[in-house]
């Protein structure tokens, strides 16, 4: 799926101003995982042949987003796949955890730490995506 820049703004929500960025060995599969397992919304994707040149996935509960593309080891800005991590704030950690648990058997990945209360007052689940990146989803909104 490719979208034009005019299609990137979902509703009246402002565009994110901070992005997590990462590279993937199989970017189409990782995009599918993020959409189906985590609930991110694919808002833009630009392909270059069989490679994903750029994709943007917005988090529907806020203003954060992920930018990702196919790994390009010849580029200085292309980090090694599987070396990133992120924390995503959700008002619904139970629903996110249920969605992840239901998707992982089909899509891959691993629940590293099941949904549990944290020492700092949040409720959180930690997941390793199929490429090895670590993601936490919780209701701790930060300070």
From TrEMBL:
In terms of superkingdom, the source organism counts as Bacteria
PANTHER family in the cross-refs: BNAUNNG04460D PROTEIN-RELATED (PTHR34109), VOC DOMAIN-CONTAINING PROTEIN (PTHR34109:SF1)
Native organism: Nakamurella sp. A5-74
Family matches, as InterPro entries:
Glyas_Bleomycin-R_OHBP_Dase, Glyas_Fos-R_dOase_dom, VOC_core
Residue ranges constituting the VOC domain according to the UniProt record: 16-140
Q: Which Pfam families match?
A: Glyoxalase
> What protein name does the entry list?
VOC family protein
Q: PROSITE patterns attached here?
A: VOC
Q: Coiled-coil annotation: which residues?
A: none
């Amino acid at each position: 799926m490719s979208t034009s820049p005019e299609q990137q703004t979902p509703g009246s929500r402002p565009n994110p101003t901070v992005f997590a960025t990462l590279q993937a060995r199989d970017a189409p599969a990782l995009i599918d995982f993020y959409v189906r397992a985590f609930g991110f919304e694919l808002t833009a994707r630009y392909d270059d042949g069989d490679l994903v040149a750029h994709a943007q996935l917005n988090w529907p509960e806020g203003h954060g987003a992920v930018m990702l593309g196919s790994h390009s080891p010849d580029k200085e800005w292309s980090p090694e796949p599987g070396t990133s991590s992120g924390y995503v704030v959700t008002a619904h950690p139970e629903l996110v955890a249920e969605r992840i648990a239901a998707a992982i058997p089909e899509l891959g990945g691993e629940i590293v730490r099941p949904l549990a209360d944290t020492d700092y007052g949040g409720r959180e689940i930690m997941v390793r995506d199929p490429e090895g990146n670590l993601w936490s989803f919780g209701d701790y909104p930060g300070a």
